[in-house]
Amino acid sequence: MRFVVDAGRVKQLSYDPATRMSSLDDVRVSSAAAKQRRGRAGRVAEGLCVHIYPSDERLDAYTEPEVRRVPLEQLVMRAKALRLPGLAAQVCAELPEPPAAEAVLSPLYLLWLHSGCTPLSSPV
Hints:
A two-stranded parallel ribbon has the order 1-4. The radius of gyration is 19 Å and the shape is elongated. It is built from 4 helices and 4 strands. It folds into 2 domains: about 1-65, Rossmann fold (3-Layer(aba) Sandwich); about 65-115. The longest helix has 15 residues, at about 100-115. The chain has helices at about 30-40, 75-80, 90-95, 100-115; strands spanning about 1-5, 10-15, 20-30, 45-50. Strand 2 (about 10-15) and strand 3 (about 20-30) form a beta hairpin.
């Protein structure tokens, strides 16, 4: 018999664009993540999942996509290294869960200031 104890919390990376700081926050798990944890209990052998938070507690349906929670400098640099066609904002807009256009311009400007990357108007 396998047991999974779900406290209903998860460490999640978040980014504050105003302060340009990333932090590892302790947040509530989404209902999709709770369902996945429940599935782990009986995946290999017979099991039981114990949730130690109120069953009537409202959880978000899904976790916010990581591309909307983290700084985009690495993503922009990777797109530039791969020489993808179009501007960085256009490349990011084609993602399944695209970030806001303003969220892409800020890292581009910072990269241009600090490392001499190509100007904002040039293709990725």
